[in-house]
């Protein structure tokens, strides 16, 4: 799944590799920066994007509830 997010000012790509984040995935595809995105990374807005992550490692695709 490809997800496009405007977080480049606060997060470098190598910081995200292998990191678990919370994603809203049941959205219609949308174009961001000219690229199709099929979800949204959830983040808090406090001096930049603070990405939401699970407290401990969970299987990919685990539902938030």
Structural write-up:
The strands form three sheets. A two-stranded antiparallel ribbon has the order 1-4. The protein has a domain at 13-51. By secondary structure, the chain is mostly beta strands. The chain has one helix spanning 13-16; strands at 23-24, 30-32, 35-37, 40-41, 43-45, 49-51. The model has no long low-confidence stretch (mean pLDDT 93). It is built from one helix and six strands, in the order αββββββ. Helices cover 6% and strands 25% of the residues.
Strands in their spatial order, largest beta sheet: 1-4
Terminus-to-terminus distance: 21 Å
Mean pLDDT: 93
Helical/strand content category: mainly beta
Describe the largest sheet. Answer: 2 strands, antiparallel
Please tell me how large the radius of gyration is.
12 Å
DSSP helix fraction: under 10%
Oligomeric state of this protein? single chain
Encode the helix/strand succession as letters: HEEEEEE
Give the overall silhouette. Answer: globular
**Strand element count:** 6
Residue fraction in strands: 15-25%
Q: What is the count of DSSP helices, taking H or I runs of 4+ residues?
A: 1
Low-confidence segments: none
């Amino acid at each position: 799944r490809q997800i496009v997010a405007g977080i480049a000012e606060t997060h470098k790509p190598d910081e995200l590799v292998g990191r678990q984040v919370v994603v809203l995935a049941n959205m219609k595809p949308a174009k961001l920066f000219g690229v199709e995105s099929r979800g949204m990374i959830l983040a808090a807005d406090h001096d930049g994007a603070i990405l939401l992550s699970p407290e401990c490692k969970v299987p990919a695709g685990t539902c938030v509830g």
